[in-house]
Amino acid sequence: MELIVDMASRTKVIMFHLLCFLIGFVGVVCGQTDCDHELIATNISATLTSPNFPSNYPDNLRCVIHIRSPTGSRIELNFTTFELEDSVDCAKDSLVIDNAIDGGDRLLLHSCGTTWIWPRFPDGLVETSGSEATIVFVTDSSVSARGFSFEYRYIQTPQEVLFFTAETRIRFIYRRNARNGYFDETSMMNVSAVDFDPTSGFLFYGDSGARQISRRNALGTAPSASEVIVTDVDPFGFRLDIASRLLYWTDATLRTVSVTDLDGTHRSNIISDLDHPGAIVVEPYKGYIYYTDMGSPVKLERADGDGGNRVILAQGLGQGLYGTTTALAMDLEDRVLYWIDSSLGRLYSVRYDGSGPQFLSSAYTDENPFALVIDSYAFIFTDPTFGRLRFDSRDLTVHGPSLKLNRGSTYYKGLTLRSLAYTGEEPNVCPNCNGLCLPKPNDQYRCVTDDPAVVCPDNIDTYFNSGQFPSVQVTWAEPAGIVVSSSKDSGDFFPEGVTTVTYFLLVNGAIETCTFTVTVTERDTTPPVFVNCPTSREVWVGPGQTSSRVTWDTVRLQDPNDVILSTSVPSGSVFYLGTMAVTILATDNDSNVATCRFTVTVRADSQPPIIRGCPSDITVGLSSPGTELTVFWVEPTITDNFGTPSWVVRTKRSGSEFPVGETVVTYVARDSFGNTAQCVFRVTVTAYEAPPVFRNCPVPITVWIAPGTTSKRITWDTITVEDPNGVMIRSTIDSGSQFYVGTESVHVEAFSSNSDSAWCNFTVTIRVDDIPPAISQCPANITIDLTRSSERDVVVTWVVPSVTDNVGVADWTEEPIPGTRFPIGTSEVTYTATDDFNNLASCTFYVTVNGVVVPPVFRNCPGPMMAWIGPEETTKRVLWDTITLDDPKDIIVSSSLQSGSEFFVGTETVYVEATDPSSLIRAWCNFTVTIRVDDIPPVISQCPANITISLVGKSEKETVVNWAEPEATDNSDGENVLWMDSPSPRSFSVGTSKVTYTVRDSFNNVASCTFYVTVEGDEDRKGDKDKDVGIVVGAAAGGGVAVLLLLLIIVILVLIFRRRRRRAQDDPPAYWQPYRRGGAGTANDAYDDTSIYESQIDYEKPAGVAESPRQPRPAARKPLPGVEPPAATDESKNMRGIEPTDFGGSYGPVHVYESQIDFEEPAGVAGSPRQPGPAARKPPPGVEPPAATDESKNIKDIEPMDFGGSYGHVHKGSVKPLIQND
Fold first, then answer.
1. Fewest beta carbons within 10 Å, which of 143, 207, 376, 580?
2. Contact, 381 vs 389, CB < 8 A?
3. Which residues contact 216 (CB under 8 A, 6 or more apart)?
4. pTM of model > 0.85
């Protein structure tokens, strides 16, 4: 016997049995012996289980079970549960099944664990090769499991056998047991193909080395020696048509598909134009053959059984056909073809008509599949490279394992799977055929003789599917003879309709004609659809019964027109014990087939009811002194394979009272066929004994660890009980153990031999402390306003925030602390907390101290200044007192011009700015300095009139004349003038004397005052009265003219003086002229112009004021409310501010707001800021006229007036009121 099984394991079992025999008195070694059985199998299934099933089997068992059945039958074991301890070589717990009782070397199974040796027993069914079996169940003292449960009966159905070639021999193995063997012949050279005929018992095989096909007996009813039936062949693929009694093969040398009858009498090459023929399968009763052509491209084709009507079902790499496609098989029930391309290592499928191609698996890239067969459970293929058979489940969820049954040969190729019995009858459909009767579809046959003169192809009927192009490629076997010509060639495309094909052949020196037709029609490819395909069903019969009549609803189709229903077993048939498949086929006129398949299983109900949830033995103790205890359990339930079982015995129910001690509880259930099952368990009630009491069971422990660590060793106090005598304490985890991040429960049990256990349970939690401290009541931002301008800081207090942490606060910092003095401005206050693992938290808020907004106050801001210079001068240095402030501390003072600076002719404004750096509040002191040229002479007032004095006595010749001295004032020197000629009062003689006063100011402007003094003597008056009169008249006349001329000159000088003075006051200096009212500038112009924007405000003129605008006005009015300084903008961002300047006017105050803009000194301008610069600048962008507002709503508009400035633009908003009469 060459079956490769675990003989080492069997040896261990035998040695174990021998050891038990030698030392059988040691029960602990060999275990119990009350599980031995002697059983007789019937055709009705009975059940056998391992001890204590479904609970775990006991330790140290050795159970021996013998099963016998009628002679000529076999025993079937159907395992439903198999759970044993797993071990290497099954050296611990194991189950051994022998094919006999005599202990001969016929081992069928040696298994353990929870899995089967699947390839041989895919569905849990184990069949013996004879009518006896021995089962040995052995356990050790280590691990136990549920054990096993199986049904057993005897059967008389034929076995399935795998035949496969191994170069110089043919091996076989029975599908459901371990029987195996081989055939060999000295003539075998390279057997590559094999098949078996169960009707005749012949085994057919093709030998490519001997170039022949032979047959031999495989069952003992035919000749035992091999018989050659076909020679001069190179068989590659190989398949029997057991219905038509034909053998088909592919010939690798002739590149043909050939056929012969089973004795080799007749032979024909039916397809002869293949590139490299490969595998072949046959569909009995349908008249089709399927084969692969491994040319380029590789094709899978279908043809009629006579080689006609060839159709390509799949071709090329896109459908899994590449280099080598030798593994081909067919599921005859589903009519699906399967193939493995060893070049791709992939499994594919397609329906018999070429529809529904599918890629199934790529699990064969490391394999070299050669031949393939299938059954209900597996794909089975040979692998010549590795010398093995491989088994894969049909659902492809299990791949392998493999079987290797011959250590001497590693080249497995041909393969077939056949039943040992076949009930079909040999056909006799060609009674007058002297040759081969070849099947065709639709129960048609064609007789092919051995030596026809001309064998013309049959008429060919083919089709194209609906929706496809109406053209079909058609192939046929060329007629024998030399083809002279033909109207069509094999492989041409034919249109829809009937086409006649004619061959002209040279046969035996004569021209023969061969004619046949090719008919192409359109075919619907949609198969019928079942509406109510029955489901699989189980039928139970009582003891002694072997069959039952089974019916099902009439099968209906969606469209039953032109559909033929065929049923393998009709409804209402008698079904015998076992499972039978029922197949219903629906075939329409286009040969589209739909399949409805279900099974009918008839079982004899010898199976007792199943009790589920049978309680295990119960042990409870009284919790207080007493003699009885109420015990509860979950009531077991019962089910049965047929009908509804019932309880017939229940000695106790859940909730019953049980006395102290042990009580056996029994439940018995019975089904409708009288099969019974029982559930037995024990309830033990122990007397009351107080359980131990823990003194110091720890509370849950939580420990924090630093980030980056994963565990910590935790200890706790020793756990004790109140009365430790006889009490044992055990813990799942001991104090001092290493605990990892997370929560773990610690269970401590205190127990004694005669009391209940007490439990102390607590948890230990290890957490990574990545949580920062928690700071609460962090103060909000604080803002304090000072009340006095002298205050520069203030004491600020707040409530200190609190901090907590899950572990502990290691460091707590605060800066500054409450009570700290805070200066004006915003200060940051931060609290920082750090825990033991350096997790950080902080609290930040801000303290803002606002100072009193009080602008600086000037003490001695100068008023407008005026200085005079001589006509030849252009500048004058002007001094003023140092400007001081009321509170100069920390005040920054800046001035546009310093005291002692040189001023040019004209008026210039001096701007003094005081800035408080803490609040950025500014104050301004602005005053003007005017330099004027003094070309105006002094003014003499009270010049005496002419004086005439008469002497009294004749002797008097002179007299002293007195007059009031004139006074002189000057616009620049005031009364400090220089009298150049100032005659004091003196004596005058008789006659007329001219008196002149001359005065000069400091700039040499001269003024004079002249009058005449006349002294009259007495004698002169009397003696020369007439003459005197004439003289006086003449003198008076001449003196009057002079006086008139003098007065005219004085009037002219006064007018000239006033006009120049007015021009000096009203007109700007000469160098301002280019900027006045938009005048053009020159290269010597000042830096830029000064623009004044005047907002004219109309006021009513007060009563009593003359029309002249220069008439002295009444008291100046205050500015109207709502007149605010305009906003000044400048893109240069050099604007310093806006300050008001008041000027008196004849009608009212004029408010001029000046926005000082600092510009950088232009290139090329000398250091003196008032030296004329180069080219005049344009007004800076963004400077718009200011808005003027007035509550009186009398504002008219704003008009610009331009004035030159030495540094840049001065934009003034000037408000001029017009006063109306009250």
1. 376
2. yes
3. 183, 185, 202, 203, 205, 222, 223, 224, 225, 226, 227
4. no
